[in-house]
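Entry:
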Amino acid sequence: MGAFKKPVTKNETSAQAVASVATILDRESRSTIEGWIERVNADQNLRAIELDDKTRSCHLPQLFKDLVHRLRNPLPLGARGERSKSAQAHGLTRRKQGYSAAMLIEESRMLQVSIFDTLRKNDNGLDFNALLPDVMVIADEVDSQLVEAMTSYIG
């Protein structure tokens, strides 16, 4: 993967629209989910649980809505946002589908990779002044939802 490009200067801004991370993820959620599905389907361990793509990814549209909402309505880093009923249901569903705890964690890791790959592919339009704080929010939100999923998975 390539490195992020340098920040856009004021002179370059007029020729190129700058978008927030939230806007890019909202706009590109479908392609990000498709990238995640490709990664999951390429993983031998995750593929061992036979699910169609729609069933395997059905939790992701709500996760993206929650993530975009959190990016647009920031909390202090590390502060807990609202509990996600979707993440809780996801953990229970994965347990019923036969996932191991490690598999649940791996698909979450792959989601973060897919999200960051989407940002890399759209780096020409990124607002680089907000990139690092937004990346921290992404990691925090995805991990928070993983904790909720794991809690219901174990419970």
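The two ends are 38 Å apart (CA to CA).
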